[in-house]
Design a protein that fits this description.
13% of the residues lie in helices and 35% in strands. It is mainly β and 947 residues long. Strands 22, 23, 24, 26, 31, 32, 33 and 38 form an eight-stranded antiparallel beta sheet that branches. Residues 874-947 are annotated as: Disordered. Keywords: Calcium, Cell adhesion, Cell membrane, Cell projection, Endoplasmic reticulum, Glycoprotein, Golgi apparatus, Membrane, Postsynaptic cell membrane, Repeat, Signal, Synapse, Transmembrane, Transmembrane helix. It is found in: Cell projection, Dendrite; Endoplasmic reticulum membrane; Golgi apparatus membrane; Postsynaptic cell membrane.
């Protein structure tokens, strides 16, 4: 506390004394300074005031009136109190009444007044001083550590570049004062890094970074406040080094694997375009799927041309001029085929091959309306003036060299020639139609369809219409009796030369060359026939930005995406997908090619984006295993083969298809078999051995068996071919109704057939199912009696309603006379029954059809259900046994055994049968016959007969 001046003190003492002498009354108010300034350290209670807190009163030294009793503070929520230290001197002190925190409030301002003690001890008539203003400042204590604003900092730099600042880290402090709340320094804790940091938190690299040397860095940074208090937790900073920015697509894979049957698959799910920060006004990307190395240019169905036309709903009546070589279509056998093309039937012409189409195949009724269609791949011909290259030509077979109609290529122009026959109107008619198209010589596959509605001719190339750019007129051809020759791959020159020969050979590849007389093809069918099963696609069209524009070509092998914003383009490109809808697609690679054009403001092009080349690898599908099962031997009486319906050799046929599927269970890969349903496209029944003799036998299928199915059939002396894309179930139904008839079976012992089926034009083929039809010729009754004493023969039992039951009876060397008589009587009765049964069978076959009767399954001997089951004497001679069950080995009758064979025959052992009484047996037999008649079948069982 400061010391008061001597003169001032003397004045107050003299004045106070005089007042006391004059009277003891409280005449004056206390006096204090008008303002005070104080400082308090947070969390402390003492306030340092300037000037000190002293109140004076002129009534001093009068007791009470001249003394100071209190200081009062006025203010809301002021955490201070004033205390009087000396009532006489008026000294006081200001201190905190509660905790003072700088972080909560840095300054306080309030009012203070001094009160004297009044006129007497009671404190009455007290007086208060004027109001003084007190300003208190709270001093800070460095109690908080710096804290970083982010838990992790990330940045990226381009290699080879020195940065003034890569990124800035920032820390803060909760202390209230500038000294302790400000961050005065940052420091990199991690040693040996090529980075430095300044006092503002800016990190820079101290040397040029190399992407090849190190792709990323992780450094730890700490901070200090101005009181040199360090952050409790350091912060991590990740810095990625990027290669020198090169504009282009990033985040794509060079190979994308496609699993068959998975639908649509994204090609570039993480793809984005790096523009190196340049402002762009537009981006145009073109994605091209290149599949020209596959079959006819992409993954199409590889069924036969006729099957494809039926699938696409084309009108019937077309003639395939380039069918697969077979006994009935042998004119293409000498042509070169392009193998290894996923069973696509492609013929390659190198300028030396051609084929004459047989006259019985050539359409004879070409009217004013017809269609010519073909797949063609053709390149430019050598030389400036190339020769004509003929795809199809109909010319005079002999004498003259007139071309009636032809389709040829000349100097990359497609020309269709049509010379009509002479009519009553002898005038010029349109004769040659020319098209000049790039597709003709681009060495790619294209589908050409020429629709003739004379005099108009329209060309479709891959479903797009093209009108002829040139039409040439000519005179009609005068009618003559000269035969014509239709050729493929060249033109036949039969006249005007010494030796008839081919000319104007074609160089290129052809497939599916057809002529349909009488009507033209529709646009819908043409589009279906040339449609690809694979292509590009875009997923989630609704999620694309509004400024995105996209366009597909008709085959969906080219996709163009345009947009103004790079982010929108990136999003669109991630949705580009590959799809293949074939059940068994062609495995192998498909090339992808992406070209990109970038436009800047006010410029045509500002960045050069490198092209992308990638591949889609279509993985091999799970190949189906087509299996044909059923009885492989059929035994029928000769009378069955002579019947009006013959026999159905494949009545019990079953066709199944399975694939091997791998599944993972418990970490192990286990293959499993799964049955799949798919189509077949042909089944061939081939006669093994001598071909059919039309004079005495036939193998045929009734037209009604194909109704309601996508099936056709052709037959010859070599067999039957059922073809068309249809389900396995429909093929089963059709094959079961194939009939074999032989109206002269006397010399026939058996007929053998081989059945095979195919999917995708032979890409997947079934097993070879062999079937033998054995003919049962009945022997005369006397032979059975004469062979009665022959050795017993063992034959395998066959358990079916209609059976041949035999077993091994071991008889003693000498039979008693009584037993011999009994046996003779039994055999005689049995022979009579057999003769009656055969007659009943013959009568039954003559009276009714066997269409609706159930066939009997048996892998060895199969008799058709009839009204009677025949049980043959087991003591027949070896010849009879061989006729029934080809090749049963002979057993020595002289071999003596003590034990009897108890082979089961119709539910009874041979011992039980032998012990039966003859009369009881005949009675049981009659009852059994009656019961079987009531059920609509006459069945004889060996269990009711004693041998």
């Amino acid at each position: 506390m400061q010391t008061l001046g001597v003169p001032f003190l003397l004045f107050w003492l003299i004045w106070g004394h005089s007042c006391a002498l004059g009277g003891k009354v409280n005449k004056h108010k206390p006096w204090i300074e008008t303002s005070y300034h104080g400082v308090i350290t947070e969390n402390m209670d003492t306030v340092l005031l300037d000037p000190p807190l002293v109140a004076l009163d002129k009534d001093a030294p009068v007791p009470y009136a001249g003394e100071i009793c209190a200081f009062k503070i006025y203010g809301q929520d002021v955490p201070f109190e004033a205390v009087v230290l000396n009532r006489t001197s008026g000294e006081g002190v200001l201190r905190a009444s509660s905790s003072v925190d700088c972080e909560i409030q840095k300054e306080y301002t309030f009012i203070i007044q001094a009160y004297d003690c009044g006129a007497g001890p009671s404190g009455a008539d007290w007086k208060k001083s004027h109001k003084a203003v007190v300003h208190i400042q709270v001093d800070d204590v460095n109690e908080f550590s710096p804290v970083f604003r982010e838990p992790l900092y990330k940045a990226s730099v381009i290699e080879g570049k020195i940065y003034d600042s890569i990124l800035q880290v920032e820390a803060w402090d909760q202390d209230c004062s500038p000294q302790y709340s400000q961050i005065c320094n940052y420091e990199i804790v991690t040693a040996g890094t090529p980075f430095a940091i300044d006092r503002n938190g800016n990190i820079r690299n101290t040397e040029r970074l190399s992407y090849d040397k190190q792709q990323s860095y992780k450094i730890m940074v700490t901070a200090f406040d101005c009181g040199q208090k360090r952050a409790k937790e350091d912060v991590a900073v990740h810095i990625d080094v990027k290669p020198i920015c090169k504009p282009g697509w990033q985040g794509w894979n060079k190979r994308v694997d496609y699993e068959p049957g998975t639908g649509s698959k994204q090609l570039f799910p993480k793809m984005h375009l790096e523009t190196c920060g340049g402002p762009l006004s537009g981006v145009r990307a073109m994605v091209e799927l290149q599949t020209n190395h596959i079959g006819k240019g992409c993954d199409r169905e590889t069924y036969s041309e006729k099957s494809l036309q039926k699938l696409c709903g084309a009108a019937s009546g077309s003639t395939d001029l380039l069918p697969a070589p077979s006994p009935s279509t042998n004119w293409t056998a000498s042509l070169l085929t392009d193998s290894g093309r996923d069973s696509d039937l492609i013929y390659r012409f190198d300028g030396r091959q051609a084929a004459n189409v047989p006259d019985h195949v050539v359409p004879q009724n070409l009217t004013d309306q017809f269609t010519v269609a073909t797949w063609m791949k053709h390149g430019p011909s050598p030389g400036l003036r190339a020769e004509k290259e003929t795809l199809l030509c109909n010319s005079d077979k002999t004498e003259m060299n007139r071309h009636h109609y032809s389709l040829y290529v000349h100097n990359c122009r497609l020309v269709f020639l049509l010379r009509r026959d002479f009519t009553q109107v002898d005038t010029f008619r349109p004769a040659e139609f020319h098209w000049k198209l790039e597709q003709i010589c681009d060495k790619e596959w294209h589908y050409y369809v020429i629709n003739v509605e004379f005099p108009a001719v329209t060309l479709f190339v891959d479903g797009v219409t093209y009108e002829p750019y040139l039409v040439t007129d000519d005179w009609p051809i005068h009618t003559s009796k000269i035969d014509t020759q239709l050729t493929v791959g060249a033109c036949w020159q039969g006249g005007e030369v010494a030796t008839p020969r081919f000319t104007q050979y074609f160089h290129g590849s052809l497939s599916g060359l057809t002529i349909r007389p009488g009507r033209i093809e529709t646009q819908k069918v043409i589009s279906c026939l040339q449609a690809c099963k694979e292509g590009l696609d875009i997923n989630s069209l609704e999620s694309l930005a509004k400024d995105i524009k996209f366009h597909f070509n008709p085959a969906q092998s080219v996709l163009v995406v345009e947009g103004e914003d790079v982010d929108s383009i990136n999003t669109a490109m991630t949705k580009v997908s590959y799809i293949n809808s074939r059940q068994f697609p062609t495995p192998g690679l498909r090339r992808l090619h992406i070209t990109t054009t970038v436009q800047c403001f006010g410029e045509d092009t500002c960045l050069s984006i490198p092209d992308i080349k990638a591949v889609v690898m279509v993985l091999p599908p799970s190949e189906p295993r087509i299996t044909i099962t059923g009885s492989n031997r059929l035994v029928r009486p000769a009378s069955d083969l002579q019947g009006p319906l013959g026999v159905a050799p494949f009545k019990e046929l079953h066709i199944t298809s399975t694939v091997m599927k791998g599944d993972s269970f418990g970490g192990f890969h286990r293959p499993g078999v799964m049955e799949v349903m798919h189509n077949l496209d042909y089944c061939d029944i081939l006669v093994i051995g001598e071909e059919l003799n039309p004079e005495r036998e036939s193998l045929e299928i009734h037209h009604n068996a194909l109704l309601g199915k996508h099936l056709d059939a052709t037959n010859s002396t070599s067999g039957i071919s059922i073809y068309g894309v249809d389900s396995m179930a429909h093929y089963e139904q059709a094959l079961r109704q194939v009939r074999y008839k032989n109206w002269r079976p006397a010399t026939l012992s058996d007929r053998r057939f081989r059945l095979t089926c195919s999917e995708l034009n032979g890409r997947y083929t079934s097993n070879e199912f062999n079937l033998e039809v054995s003919v049962l010729h009945h022997s005369a009754p006397v032979e059975h009696v004469n062979h009665m004493a022959a050795q017993s023969q063992y034959m395998r039992p066959v358990h079916h309603p209609l059976m041949i039951h035999t077993f091994n009876s071991h008889m003693s060397g000498t039979a008693p006379p009584a037993a011999t008589v009994v046996i003779v009587v039994c055999i005689a009765a049995l022979v009579v029954i057999v003769v009656i049964g055969v007659y009943r069978i013959h009568t039954t076959h003559q009276e009714g059809s066997r269409e609706d009767e159930d066939e009997v399954k048996d892998p060895e001997v199969d008799w058709d259900n009839s009204a009677l089951t025949i049980t043959v004497n087991p003591m027949e001679n070896i010849k009879g046994a061989q006729a029934l069950d080809g090749g049963v080995k002979e057993e020595n009758r002289e071999e003596e055994e003590d034990e009897e064979d108890e082979e089961q025959v119709g539910g009874m052992t041979s011992a039980e049968s032998d012990n039966s009484d003859e009369d009881e047996e005949e009675e049981e037999e009659r009852e059994e016959v009656k019961k079987r008649k009531q059920r609509g079948k006459l069945e004889w069982d060996s269990s009711s007969i004693t041998y």
